[in-house]
Amino acid sequence: MINASDLVRDEVHELAPYNSGLTVREVNERYGPAKIAKLASNENPLGPSPDLDSITMADSDLLRLYPDPAGVELREAIAVALDVASTQIILGNGSEELISIICRAVLRPRDRVVTLYPSFPLHEDYAALMGASVERVNVKGNMSVDVDTFEKKIATPARMVIFSNPMNPVGSWLAPAELSRVIAAADKNTLIVVDEAYAEYAAGEDYVSAIDLLKGSRRPWVVLRTMSKAYGLAGLRIGYGVVADPEFRSLLDRVRTPFNVNAIAQVSAVKALADRQHLQRVVTLAASERQRVQAFLLANDWPVAASKGNFLFFDCAGNAADFAEGLLRYGVIVKPWKQAGYETFVRVSVGSPDENNQFMSAVLSLTSQDVSHSSAIADG
């Protein structure tokens, strides 16, 4: 008799498990620290807008009835915020689901997909799951995007090019002129998918959304956004995409499940979008704390990439998994990167001032222990 696992496609067997990071409960059970700073998943330390307090279980219809399958109110709110047509908006159970939907709708076995590297792993995983061939463009030694190589790679016809801007996990970004070059270089029949999960944190003169550059273009494109990061709704799992045209969006809609975004998530997202003051507080805090933590890392000789996200990517000069495990003893959760070639790198989220202080103190304590241990070995 055949084993059930033998029925699973080869592409699934070849996927590495997604590194979701440890939960607070897991760290408590393992080490029982007095205080935990969860800085592994780029969550928002200020949480969602206080306006969401009015959404309570008292409104039983939010639980009793199926949600609006089209998400009309939310799509209209997004359309107003971004100055696009609501018929261009597709909703997802997190932007991760939208990546899956796009790959399932568009990709075929042996299709060519180009991405930046190191990357958000699901950009590659969902493409590989469909049997596509993924080609990577590595960042340069200083962790900036290799725009010249990227242009050359995507000038050759590909089914899809998918990348984050700012990049996750690195934090590097394509400046307006660079992003324009990339879009112009891509073969006209290639689907461009830009993941802008951290766009709210990146806003400024040296950053532009791909929406602004692609709006009105006749070529195929999708720009992905999420409510998990700057809007503080990670637990509700809600993301959205802006799609080149309504016809393409309607076809992608056929691939998603009919009620993929729950009612509480839809109502919460509408309220969160409306509170621009809270969003500004979130972005301002992240920028100032990112600069402070980056200065600390550089002052202590930890190579760290320039970042436009609410996180930093640095080289711990050793096994990143061991380094992260050491920090757990001090109640600090970070994410050791596991993609090939970057096993010494750690991504740390920018948290609250107290959480960041806890991280910096833990790093100093951990590294002083390592120095003492190395000295003892040398003296012995």
UniProtKB/TrEMBL annotation:
Pathway: Amino-acid biosynthesis; L-histidine biosynthesis; L-histidine from 5-phospho-alpha-D-ribose 1-diphosphate: step 7/9. The keyword Transferase applies. InterPro entries: Aminotrans_II_pyridoxalP_BS, Aminotransferase_I/II_large, HisP_aminotrans, HistidinolP_aminotransfase, PyrdxlP-dep_Trfase, PyrdxlP-dep_Trfase_major, PyrdxlP-dep_Trfase_small. Its cofactor is pyridoxal 5'-phosphate. The keyword Amino-acid biosynthesis applies. Residues 35-362 form the Aminotransferase class I/classII large domain. Belongs to the class-II pyridoxal-phosphate-dependent aminotransferase family. Histidinol-phosphate aminotransferase subfamily. Gene3D superfamilies: Aspartate Aminotransferase, domain 1, Type I PLP-dependent aspartate aminotransferase-like (Major domain). The modification N6-(pyridoxal phosphate)lysine is found at K229. It comes from the Bacteria. It is an enzyme of class 2 (transferase). Its EC number is 2.6.1.9. This is Histidinol-phosphate aminotransferase.
